[in-house]
Design a protein that fits this description.
It is a single chain. With 429 residues, the protein is of the alpha/beta class. The strands form 5 sheets. Strands 4-10-9-8-7-5-6 form a 7-stranded mixed β-sheet, with helices on both faces. 40% of the residues lie in helices and 16% in strands. It is globular. It has 2 domains: 143 residues, Aspartate Aminotransferase, domain 1 (Alpha-Beta Complex); 255 residues, 3-Layer(aba) Sandwich (Aspartate Aminotransferase, domain 2). Helix 6 links the parallel strand 5 and strand 6.
Length: 429
């Protein structure tokens, strides 16, 4: 029988399993089928979702995990001796391991937070309050999301420190030398984005982290727009802190990640006090748990963390490199297409650009644009995108931002371009 099969394989090579199955390729149709929201209509038009930088849509795998864990496997975690609690704890801590493996760090270096904003504030108020002294300097960039500006302003005001902002260049790109020129012996923190949420510019993370290390400062990276488009490796990047939000990585809201080097976390005081972050509590004094639990006071976002683990499983299954390559192809197409339309001004054309394309129109305000094209079923973001210093630097009040995910298509941008012609018509252009 074996000989017969071998003979058939020799005679009919098409019957042999292919080395590269369809699932190993980027099957966009199959991917889109996994997102229920993409099947709905808006104003009787098929939804074109180009607001993924604000929040990704969720694959069915994540939605099912949320329902299952709330319906059948829900309990509070840690210390519970009953079956449900043991299951929930195992799944919760299993999600922590998934995150650690995904970004290449130790599980004890993964702190669950409510989001990236909470993660940055944790570092600011825990590490910052302890280590920032009067006259210290905190370096940021003008391309920061407000969540990576305001916490440092608050700490600087309390501690008598200064905020120094690095510019992006006229082409809206960024060179690490700009940071290097600002460093002094007073520099204690260098905070910067992995990818700009307005320009799509990818920052030279490794180089900036190296600069921080050389001058004795800590580096903290806002990775919200980075980890969703490319593989990140904490060992390779060399950063001290890296944070991101679950809802931008195909997971639910209410869950975020703070990576911190264990030696640094170990020396940081708690940010919040309460249950689960303690070792021993006495009326006179309390002692605290080791990281990461030291920074996870109270009941954590249990189901949200588990669902984020499922989202990471989904990303790994598809392939983060394949997702990134697909998104880059789509965003390059969209950038070129919009840039070719008369009266449309595209901002951000760095070679490293990914994820988003921001633009204005000569004839209409960004809010009007977003409102009009919404009636065509197209979802985009309009405003300053929590990046007012960047807007000020380029004399902008707001932009319209189209952003992509694993499920986005070139046809999405074709429809966007068509809808912009309607905007022109309405405004008499």
């Amino acid at each position: 029988m074996i000989l017969c099969l071998k003979k058939l394989n020799w005679l009919y090579p098409q019957l042999q399993p292919k080395k590269h199955s369809i699932m190993k390729l980027y099957d966009l149709h199959h991917i889109r089928e996994q997102f229920p929201a993409l099947n709905r209509q808006v104003w009787n038009k098929p939804l074109v979702y180009l607001d993924s930088a604000a929040s990704m849509q969720k694959p069915r795998k994540v939605l099912e995990a949320i329902n299952k864990n709330y319906s059948f496997n829900y309990s509070n975690v840690h210390r519970g001796l009953h079956k449900l609690s043991e299951e929930a704890t195992s799944s919760y801590e299993g999600a922590r391991k998934k995150v650690a493996d995904f970004i290449n760090c130790h599980e004890q270096e993964v702190v669950f937070t409510s989001g990236a904003t909470a993660a940055i504030n944790l570092v600011a108020y825990s590490w910052g309050m302890k280590n920032i002294l009067p006259d210290a300097e905190i370096i940021i960039t003008i391309a920061e999301h407000h969540a990576n500006i305001v916490p440092w302003q608050l700490i600087a005001e309390r501690k008598g420190a200064s905020i120094i902002a690095a510019d992006v260049d006229p082409n809206m790109d960024f060179d690490a030398d700009v940071i290097k020129k600002l460093v002094t012996d007073k520099t204690k923190i260098i905070a910067f984005p992995h990818v700009s949420n307005v320009l799509g510019t990818t920052f030279p993370v490794k180089e900036i982290c190296k600069i921080a290390k050389e001058c004795g400062a800590i580096s903290i990276v806002d990775g919200c727009q980075g980890v969703i488009h490319e593989k990140v490796d904490m060992v390779d990047l060399g950063c001290d802190f890296y944070c991101f939000s679950g809802h931008k990585l195909y997971g639910p809201t209410g869950i975020g990640i703070l990576f911190g080097k264990y030696k640094i976390l170990e020396e940081m005081p708690p940010f919040l006090g309460g249950g689960d972050m303690i070792d021993i509590v006495k009326i006179e004094k309390s002692t605290f748990a080791d990281p990461p639990l030291r920074f996870e006071a109270g009941t954590p976002p249990i189901v949200e963390a588990i669902a984020l683990g499922e989202a990471i499983d989904w990303v790994i299954e598809v392939g983060i490199d394949k997702i990134g390559a697909h998104e880059k192809n789509v965003i390059d197409y969209g950038t070129s297409l919009l840039d070719s339309i008369n009266g449309v001004n595209v901002f951000g054309k760095a070679p490293s650009k990914t994820g988003v394309v921001s633009f204005t129109m000569d004839c209409a305000h960004s809010h009007d644009i977003a409102t009009i094209i919404d009636r065509e079923g197209i979802a985009v973001r309009a405003g300053h995108h929590c990046a007012q210093p960047l807007m000020d630097a380029f004399n902008l009040v707001s932009t319209t931002r189209a952003s992509v995910g694993a499920y986005s298509t070139k046809e999405d941008f074709d429809k966007l371009a068509q809808s912009l012609n309607k905007v022109k018509t309405i405004f008499g252009v």
